[in-house]
Design brief:
Layout lengths: L2 E9 L2 E8 L7 E10 L2 H9 L1 E2 L2 E2 L4 E2 L3 E9 L11 E4 L2 E2 L5 H4 L10 E2 L12 E5 L3 E3 L6 H4 L2 H13 L8 E4 L3 H12 L5 E5 L2 H9 L4 E4 L5 H8 L5 E6 L4 H10 E9 L11 H7 L2 E4 L7 H9 L9 E6 L3 H10 L6 E5 L2
Parallel strand pairs: 13-14, 13-16, 14-15, 16-17, 17-18, 19-20
Antiparallel strand pairs: 1-2, 1-6, 3-7, 3-11, 3-20, 4-5, 7-8, 8-12, 9-10
Length: 346
């Protein structure tokens, strides 16, 4: 059996480079030689705590789901890609037959197998297998690094889609990490002019301004509701995208959104969050959750390939697989002002 290198998480703070069997593929699968993988906040949560919500690391697992690579092998019934082709993987493999899959909301499939989410192995490895219909050819003008940014961009685009963002809307985004900054660009791609980004780290807010935010607000130094009300002529914003998972941000969202507005929840809080239900009722708000994405990968790829959305600027650090622990440490300690840290595998 062929062997490959992989980063295996055994328990919180215990990740090791090991040699494992190369995955086998079925007639409808492909084997992808991984080139780049992004470190996501969810990977860090699993690394630090060994769990996110009901997903618990109970046995050794390979993390990682933001990935791009090259087709190494194809199953005998695969016709949409060929060996040697550069590809991007949509990392959630669904059943295809349940009510959610059949209605187009396959991100809600109860039988999904998602890279790097217990109990399924992910992409911090030299090879992964994937259903052929989950891989997308990468345009010639895109790098592997950009390809590995399509997955987080899809989350940002799903947030804009769920919020029904249009050119007529003003949008406030809590959180200027990768998802918040990509949600900002997704909103701008819908024609939004008035976009406000809130965070507590100044260098992240500088990125928001470079990427088109009208204003950037440091919530540790300024009163967010007062600032937003001043900037909007006391009207508030049409849409709030909450990408930080902060309790305070969730509560402030209810204050800054217009009556009849929309709040899109993307960030996962690590604790239960009390909400002011009376404010939701009196403002008649729409509260919308985002769970990953559905039907946005092709558009995300086009936006990057065409130059409409810039993901390359967000890639601040790249480490080889052998130094993956250093990459996680940079993410956790914010060494060198990181935005997106990627692992170069092959």
């Amino acid at each position: 059996m062929r062997k490959m290198k992989a980063a295996v998480l055994h328990k919180p703070l215990d990740m090791r480079i090991e040699y494992l069997d190369v995955p086998e593929i079925s007639p409808l699968d492909v084997l992808v030689r991984i080139k780049r993988v992004g470190i996501c906040g969810s990977d860090v949560h699993f690394y630090l705590q060994g769990r996110i919500s009901s997903f618990i690391v109970e046995k050794p697992i390979i993390l990682g789901h933001e990935c791009s690579g090259e087709i190494a092998e194809v199953g005998e019934k695969v016709t949409n890609v060929k060996v040697g082709q550069r590809v991007i993987i949509e990392p959630g493999f669904t059943c295809g037959v349940c009510e959610y899959c059949r209605s187009g909301r396959y991100n809600l499939c109860r039988d999904v197998r998602f890279y790097g989410t217990p109990p399924y192995n992910g992409a911090f490895a030299e090879y992964v297998s994937a259903p052929a219909h989950n891989v997308y050819p990468m345009p010639d003008n895109m790098t592997y690094g950009e390809g590995a940014m399509i997955e987080p961009l899809a989350v940002g685009m799903m947030a804009a889609k769920r919020g029904g963002v249009t050119v007529n809307d003003s949008v406030a985004i809590f959180g200027a990490g990768p998802i918040g900054l990509l949600a900002l660009q997704a909103a701008k791609s819908h024609g939004v002019i008035d976009a406000y980004v809130i965070d507590v780290i100044d260098y992240r807010l500088d990125y928001a301004l470079k990427l088109g935010a009208e204003n950037a607000i440091n919530a540790s130094k300024e009163n967010v509701p007062e600032q937003i009300m001043q900037l909007t002529g006391k009207k508030g914003v049409d849409v709030v995208i909450e990408a930080s998972g902060s309790i305070k941000a969730l509560q402030q969202a209810l204050h800054i959104v217009k009556p009849g507005g929309r709040i899109v929840l993307v960030g996962y809080p690590l604790v239960e969050v009390p909400l002011l239900i009376d404010r939701i009722l009196e403002k008649e708000l729409n509260i919308l959750g985002v769970h990953r994405y559905a039907n946005v990968f092709p558009a995300a790829i086009k936006c990057v390939s065409s130059g409409k959305i810039d993901v390359k600027t967000l890639i601040t650090h790249v480490f080889p697989l052998e130094r993956i622990l250093e990459g996680f440490d940079v993410h956790i300690k914010k060494v060198g002002n990181p935005i997106k840290i990627q692992i170069e595998v092959s």
